Amino acid sequence: MVSSPDPRFPFLKNLDIPQNWDAAAQRFLEEGGISLVLGGPGTGKSTLCHYLVYRAYVAGEPVALVDLDLGQSHLGPPGALGLGLFPPRFPGDYSLFPEGLYFIGQTSPVGAVLEVAVGCRILVDEARRRHVDRMVVNTSGLIAGPAACRLKQAEMELLKPNLVWGLVRDRELMPLLRSLGDGNTFLNLSVSSRAVIRGPEERRSYREMRFRRYFKKAQGLDLPLSEVVWHGPPLGWGEPLSPADLGRWSTILGEQVLYGVAGDTHTVLLVDQPGPYHPPSPASQERLHLLSRTVLEQHLMGLWDNAHRTLALGLLLPSSWQEGHLRVWTPLPASQISQVRFLSLGRLKLSPTGRELAVVGAIEHFKPLLIDQDPFRIEHIWQCLFRGGFFPAQRILSAAISAIDIALWDIKGKALGVPVYELLGGRVRDKVVCYPHNYGHQGEVKRLVDSCLQTKEEGWKFVRWGLAEEGDVLEPRRSVRMALQEFQAVREAIGD
User: Fold this and answer.
1) Of the four listed, 1, 211, 324, 443, which is most buried by Cβ atoms within 10 Å?
2) What is the pTM of this model?
3) What pLDDT is stored for residue 391 in this prediction?
4) Which of 354, 334, 340 is nearest to 311 (CA)?
């Protein structure tokens, strides 16, 4: 606990500050410049960052906080990097509308390493432009794997921090630190006893709460398509088609094309309900991609000004594409909508209340491709869904395709009056041994043991549980060590 916490800063009240955090704060005050904070999920990175900001603030030193945690951000909404300045803000201010934002459009840096690296440098430069040179950079909890190494290496190269603090739990940071170079530049700190590892559901709820509050006072605003430029996929890789070209494609497809862009090697067309096949293109080398209008609706958007600064986030609403207007749900004041010059689409789909619509949106995306299809052609439909989009299906789209595939097998079995296993080669066994799921990992060994004892008392022959995870991250070295402790404790309690 912080001794005699300053009543002006309520966030200090329940903090447990390790002794070496005080030494780190003193060194931060003495050396200034940029301090980069590394650590896995649940190590208290945000707490350390706000503590360093607090120490600089009460010492009368202006300080900036750059938050690079896309999913569990404390500055700005999820899906964007944030910049806060102290003053004018008070330490502990977790504002949704900080001094700077940089839109990424997803809640994980994986697949957006370049964008996160560029964004962090832009926000640091913005702080310097405002005459603040002392900064704390809170990095994401991604510390394992190739993407983590590439991202942290890029951040080190672009920011050249004076100090790098590592919140060390066991040896989970060691592989990353070795990949970053000279170990003498890194300073290890203890993890606070109050640090909590959030589970996936808790992390999702936190994102939903932040999105809901960010869009609480949003309104629908219109943007003329002729006055904005798309950046990034799927509409930012070419020139907008002219009305004559849209008419030509409408004739070829036999349905109205609402909007389109043409690049050197591909054309993207927006229609109401694209069919499962792409018609041949008039240009033999041209690749044609059809997008359903509903696919883009409710996607998270970045609204940028002429200097490529993120003005706000928004959600794309049903729009009058053919009339040249977009409708955007955004907290950006109506008086500033004329400043928007660039638009980018993120990977997230949200409801206006902040609920993430990933798999639901993916299934809705496939809906036009399924209408009037023969449900018995299961493999044919799978191939169309998996290979017929702008990119091959991965992650969320694959989950949606799996749900549709299972539903098709169920339909076929019911229509033929047979169990699905008869369609898959017939029954192999007369009975199958089952097992329950046990809970209590992530360091709660006693809770796991109690769960397994209850399972045994209920007459089950087997127990089962998963490897320990830290939030959304599975760290193999730590998880295996924890599994050894869990197996030993369970065997001692219930036997072999």
Assistant:
1) 211
2) 0.74
3) 58
4) 340
